[in-house]
Amino acid sequence: MKLWSSRLILAVAGGTVPWLLCVALAGEAAAQAPVAAPKPQTAGEAFKNVTTSTLKGLTVSDFLGSMGVMAAALGYDCADCHIAAGTDKVNWEFDTPKKKTARRMVEMVAGINRTNFAGVQMVTCWTCHHGRFQPSTTIGLDALYGTPNEEKSDIVAPGEGQPSATQILDKYIQALGGAQRLAGLTSYIATGSSLGYEGLGGGGSFQIFAKAPNQRTTLITFKDHPERGNNTRVYNGSAGWIKSPRGLFPEFELNGSDLEGAKLDAQMSFPGQIKQVLGNWRVGSPDSIGDKEVQVVQGSGPRGLLATLYFDKQSGLLLRVVRYTPSPIGRVPIQMDYSDYRDVGGIKFPFKYTFSWLDGRDSFQLSDVKTNVPVDAAKFAKP
User: Fold this and answer.
1) Which residue among 191, 299, 311, 327 is least crowded, i.e. fewest CB within 10 A of its CB?
2) How confident is the model at residue 85 (pLDDT cuts 50, 70, 90)?
3) Which of 160, 151, 164 has its CA nearest to residue 286?
4) Smallest Cα–Cα separation from 317: which of 295, 284, 288, 285?
5) Which pLDDT tens digit goes with each residue over 275-287?
6) How many Cα atoms within 13 Å fall on the side-chain side of residue 175?
7) 257-267 and 60-74 are packed helices; what angle lies between their axes, rounded to 10 degrees?
8) Is there a contact between 131 and 72 (Cβ–Cβ < 8 Å)?
9) Per-residue pLDDT reduced to its tens digit, 165-211
């Protein structure tokens, strides 16, 4: 379990500046050229020793995700490569032998894919390491004759004889309350408690503020432990931020492909529009989550965004979403699990919600959901 205190949190800049239109006194309209949006800071610019060819050009936000890929692939935490990470004496810049080796490995992976697979990402850190610092080179016979490997491919292969994606998504919309009711959902405020993960990181109050079609803020506060600060995730329709006081930086702006993931989360808060938020829908073979049979549907979005959705075959309700964003050393997964659906004004909401990323997992239990209520615009401002 990797806690918020050990997650690398980095700051990036970005924004969108609208067109300015000037109208001549003679009545002839002339459009002024748009002001260029500030270019996001790259990892190579932000950090003195990020020098690998494929990583240094990433936005700082996407670089953060790549570090999570690397740590997960080796079964590492930040402190395994960065001296005193997770404390106030951390030295991020010091070059340890492991960091030097990691640079060579990153370039090696890029070279393998470029030379052997025409640049398509077929080899990643996980391909060899599988959660181990030293890759295994020989299969264990117990594994060979034991339970078949259940690792899933990122790209869902088409399943034979399955309903269409439209049929599965329509069943989900109906299970939640129907298209008409969902179309009438314009906002909601959900409150509950933060359960943390395995007894760690819990004890806070949890709130979701959502406004259609694509604004969402998740806020965790610790009234009894104000020294922990508030944890906040915001997407305001065009920009996003994460605030975590115990991280490397108190807050950072989402940019690059990471921003597309936050946008998808906000859009799916209003599931009546689910068929429009992704494209290239495809249906995979049936699967299971726990004791439930599920239908698997996958769609894709901008900047390499990929999302796999798992629907309960019986009820039609959404049980899990795994979304992926690209990085030079492997896709960055974020997983959301839903359960305990309850009716609120004719619409079913999941009252149990788990959010997992490469550096931690948070679980939440809702106690109340209020729909179509005013939501202060300040809730979607930079935290």
Assistant:
1) 191
2) confident
3) 160
4) 295
5) 999 999 999 999 9
6) 20
7) 90
8) yes
9) 999 999 999 999 999 999 999 999 999 998 866 555 667 899 999 99
